[in-house]
Design brief:
Layout: E1 9-14, H1 25-33, E2 36-41, H2 49-54, E3 63-67, H3 76-97, E4 99-104, H4 113-124, E5 129-133, H5 138-146, E6 157-161, H6 166-174, E7 178-182, H7 188-197, E8 205-208, E9 216-219, E10 233-236
Parallel strand pairs: 1-4, 1-5, 2-3, 2-4, 6-7
Antiparallel strand pairs: 7-10, 8-9, 8-10
Helix pairs in contact: 3-4, 6-7
């Protein structure tokens, strides 16, 4: 049990999209410095990308698997009950061990489960210090692996979770700049239609399982309506016709 409440520390660590080599040095140090590393697990019990990545850097005995029911999208009560249970478990670990790291794919401040955990813990453990260590995002990794340029000059960058609906994506595609779509796998047909309607399919690229043996990176023009992995990422680059430095 820690001697002072201020020593209780929860650190959200971004561990990237799946490739263990994309965890930052600061992220590895944070994982190793924590007394316990919590990894989110689906209620099916299968090993997720965060856990697989963490095990490259810390011993299994230090890792605690906590169920977050990450595949629950329709039953809000069940989802929030899972968050409460997970928060309670992490609160116990904080009170017992003092320092807990929570590993999340991508970045802990970008569509991350860590957000919900931190909000829950703040109400359960008074005085807890919450910190985050940034991680490489899927859009950065896909851009690097595909050669897609995310932004130039004054171009905006719009990130859309397609779980919000394909209409939100189409509105973004109608605007300027590069559009990135997350979690679009189950709506691949609607995404392809939106790209074609807005004339943005030619340069667009999608990818899934980045950095893993089952990695797939393809031109969006090859989308045939078949469902893709849920965590697929799409990049539709900005329209660029002004030559080098045309957007400065």
């Amino acid at each position: 049990m820690p001697d002072v409440m201020s020593s209780i520390r929860l650190v959200g660590v971004g561990v990237g999209p799946g490739d263990p080599e994309l965890v930052t040095v600061k992220g590895v140090n944070a994982l190793r410095a924590a007394e316990v590393v919590v990894v989110p697990v689906m209620d099916t019990g299968e090993r997720g990308r965060a856990e697989a990545t963490v095990l490259h850097y810390v011993e299994p005995e230090k890792v605690v698997r906590v169920v977050f029911a990450l595949n629950e999208r329709s039953d809000r009560a069940r989802r929030e009950a899972a968050w409460d249970a997970a928060g309670g478990r992490v609160a116990e670990l904080l009170k017992e061990r003092g320092s807990v790291a929570f590993a999340t794919i991508g970045d802990p401040n970008v569509y991350s489960t860590f957000t919900y955990l931190a909000q829950t813990i703040a109400g359960l453990v008074p005085g807890v210090v919450v910190e985050t260590v940034p991680g490489i995002t899927a859009m950065q990794d896909l851009a690097a692996r595909s050669g897609a340029v995310l932004t130039e000059g004054t171009e905006p960058l719009t990130l859309v979770p397609v779980t919000a609906g394909s209409a939100v994506l189409k509105e973004a595609l109608d605007g300027p700049g590069t559009v990135v779509a997350y979690k679009f796998g189950r709506q691949a047909a609607e995404v392809a239609e939106a790209l074609r309607e807005t004339g943005r399919i030619g340069d667009a690229v999608w990818g899934s399982a980045l950095g893993l043996p089952e990695e797939s990176i393809r031109p969006a023009a090859e989308l045939d309506g078949a469902a893709l992995p849920y965590l697929s990422t799409l990049i539709a680059p900005a329209r660029r016709d002004g030559g080098r430095g045309g957007k400065l």
